[in-house]
């Protein structure tokens, strides 16, 4: 058995801004269940400090020298579900509102990454593997191999880097190599970290990690092409042998329809139970109560990635059908305003909840008949898995993890559990949406087949966690 340290910018049950947090909250837990020794390290953000610090154990303070700066960090710990979490505290960097998006993010995450490596020495805990996630942690393998290379305790560590989203790479001026990491400009000059006239944390990890993974098999192939590669496709091509895709699962304990603490009553595997949840949701949201009307749900960040332009373009056509619509999410203010307008115009038929609400998300999956996710690109996607698990049929664009997890319904063989379309086109989306509505009203038996099939899909982490274990082991053979 190998010891594994996950390093990430966010993770449940402590902090979440996107799907990354779901993965960090669930995969380590499952690996532990399968007998692995897994720990996780996160920054101690303000929201974590406010809610949890009283329950943390203080493991002491240590020096962090990063580039031109000398500073200190304190490490706290807490064990949850067999996973030991570490939290790096440095209030000026992390005890602010939110997680990312500050002008000094480069400095904040440079500090975090160096602090994580110094923490290993402070705790005298040197894992066999560090598993880094997304750009916030991409410099960890670079530091181990370029800065700590003559310290065997660091040099022997193997690195797995998981790409959750190619669209965010952590691009900073090349001067940060020296000023924040104490590394040589050579890493810019020789091209290893260079991205145009800057450096990219993500490129660092792609070049330096022993294995690179992403969160679905299809996305692993897609990012080798210019459309999805975000200008990194040629670098990824060089690592093709070490690049693989392992699809995400969901935390089936937190998402158990029978015991879910956010649902007003258990969700059983029957049509009547679904109808009861639909009526409760309509009541809560002020929609007209009607168990027979098709209720369509969307839970998303309101960004271009999630297909918002396409959706908004066709929203009037969508609402010309006999459906109700609930949207939960926030993001781009332009989209928020448009959706507020729709809610105003379609009283008792459209509800837009601007923001995030975990409880409502669970109730939407439980009460809705159809879930829309027409993403432009989708490394994996978690919401379609939640929807399926709660018997809400997904309608997706065939990209990345959506393609790998949603099998389109075949009306002849009766196989499959969703609706999908290929090209990023409003008309294709609308055609597929109308098809879903027709199935719902005119072929209720087929629709029920889909609902049932959705609930039977294995969306747990069991399979994928075993694949990660096999990958970890392969590095030591
Ligand atoms: C990112 C991706 C999403 C993926 C998640 C977790 O948020 O956009 O597709 O499911 O990371 O891996």
What does this entry look like structurally?
This protein is of the alpha/beta class. The protein has 2 domains: 3-249 and 462-474, Rossmann fold; 271-456, Rossmann fold, CATH 3.40.50. The protein has 22 helices and 18 strands. The chain has helices at residues 19-33, 46-52, 91-94, 105-123, 139-146, 152-155, 176-179, 186-189, 201-208, 217-222, 226-229, 233-238, 271-285, 308-313, 315-318, 333-345, 358-367, 383-389, 400-405, 426-442, 444-456, 462-474; strands at residues 3-7, 37-43, 57-66, 69-80, 83-89, 129-133, 158-163, 171-173, 194-195, 198-200, 211-214, 243-245, 294-299, 323-329, 350-354, 370-373, 393-397, 419-421. β16 (370-373), α18 and β17 (393-397) form a beta-alpha-beta unit. The chain is globular. The relative contact order is 0.10. The structure holds alpha-D-glucopyranose. Alpha-D-glucopyranose binds next to α1.
Distance between the termini: 13 Å
Principal-axis shape: globular
What is the second-level CATH architecture of the largest domain? Answer: 3-Layer(aba) Sandwich
Measured as a percent range, the helix fraction is: 40-55%
- What is the name of the CATH class of the largest domain? Alpha Beta
CATH superfamily of the largest domain: Glycogen Phosphorylase B
* Count of helical regions: 22
The main β sheet shows up as: 9 strands, mixed
CATH topology of the largest domain: Rossmann fold
Low-confidence stretches: none
